[in-house]
Amino acid sequence: MKLTFWGAAQQVTGSMFLLESDDYRILIDCGSDFDLDEIGRKNRYEEQKGVFPFEPSLINTVLLTHAHIDHSGNIPNLYKEGFEGRVVCTEPTLALTALLLKDAANLHQKRLNARLGSKKRGKKQKEVPKDYYVEKNVLEAMDNFVPVSFGQRYRIADNVTVTFYAAGHLLGAAHIVVEVFENGEKKRICFSGDIGRKNYPLLIDPQEIPQVDYLVCESTYGNRLHENTAEPVEALADVIKRTCIDIPGRLIIPSFSVGRTQALLYTLNKLYLDKSFPFIKVFSDSPLAHSSTKVYQKHGRMLNKEARSFQEDNDMLFDFENLIYLESSDASRAVSNYNEPCIIISSSGMVQGGRVEQHVEANIGNPYATILMIGYASEGTLGWRLLNGQDTISIRGKQLPVLANIEKIDVFSGHGDQNDLLKFVRMQDPEKLKGIFLVHGEQQSMADLQSKIQEFGYNSVEIPSRGRTYEL
């Protein structure tokens, strides 16, 4: 059995791992790589003569841990380049992936239209990137998705079975255990996907996995601990009180549309049920978030016990009296003219693209405005620059002074921290575990986590480079 690391190797994004046994080939995740810019991707695709460094038609099955684009975003391209197999995932992952891929396709279409417009105006048209796809490609891919349940073993080939375990990172997110029968021997390998945290709003806790032979483990927070210990309701109430009640201010919350926004809306709903808390208008400004919220509502049976009880008592998990969904771009821009204290939740969470940029641009010079960062922001993104205390920032070509207040809480981070990752690894007996592979993290994060894991007696802890193949 061979395992090759084609993505999220010594970097965070682009999860993609190829597992081969005899003539059967399984791709675990097929994510978009955001660590490369367009020129970098172009050069890579030219070097490997396609979007992928392998022949897609030879892949038999894709196993998808969860819906986020850095895990799912290249699936339409896999079909475009010849893949004819199935994508196996949980039912909520299927629904959320369809939304995210259609959103990506719409973005590609807009960029393609802009390139076509440049050609009509007599300008030289740039080459269309090989990894662009449109909605038709997404629909063709989604026809081949097969939903499975948590905790049940499924046979995907004569000698291969898979079991999905709840990862707690996102609705439907999974750890995947693959069992391969080879040369009269059974080998087990677990792909962690993204590891969640206990007691996260809405989601069930990460499930324990059985003993395996090999473990592929994410390391996003491999050298960090979550700073906030307060309950999400308490942490959010404190920020709102200081930024919108004690002073008549405006609170901007950059948030990922899938997962993070639902946790926020649910927490606000709980907060506003306490009639003593003043009602403040909440604007949810992301059509994708609105669609994703409906998926969460539909799959309420898969949420945690507290959320299910809340829904039974209050009917709606996310809708409350002072919540307004903004669908159109015009409605989004009009919020800038709303002069009462308010909360604006908008994507993206790293303030890199999306409608949130216009809200940050409109409020960055307002000392009565607060921008609340609630999750991880990659180096170089606008969110990262805000968190690092820059006096001025460039937004859409404008250099603007930072007069707004910048705050951060991490109670809504969907990633487990170093302690959570160590707990996940330590489910495995170090005498029985033959190897650990750290992926999906910055290099220093991986190195620090590697050292911590080794302190607990795990000897074979690898940090694979892209394209590295291991014989298991």
TrEMBL record:
Domain of life, per the record? Bacteria
Domain (Beta-Casp) ranges: 261-386
Q: Known EC number(s)?
A: 3.1.-.-
What is its EC class? Answer: hydrolase
For this protein, the record's CDD domains field holds: TTHA0252-CPSF-like_MBL-fold (cd16295)
Citing just one GO molecular function, the answer is:
hydrolase activity
- InterPro entries according to UniProt: Beta_Casp, MBL, Metallo-B-lactamas, RibonucZ/Hydroxyglut_hydro, RMMBL
Cross-referenced SMART domains? Beta-Casp, Lactamase_B
The answer to keyword Hydrolase applying to this record is yes
Q: Which UniProt keywords apply?
A: Hydrolase
Per the UniProt record, one Pfam family is Lactamase_B
Metallo-beta-lactamase domain ranges (all copies): 13-256
Q: Key word Ribosomal protein present in the record?
A: no
Q: What is this protein called?
A: Ribonuclease
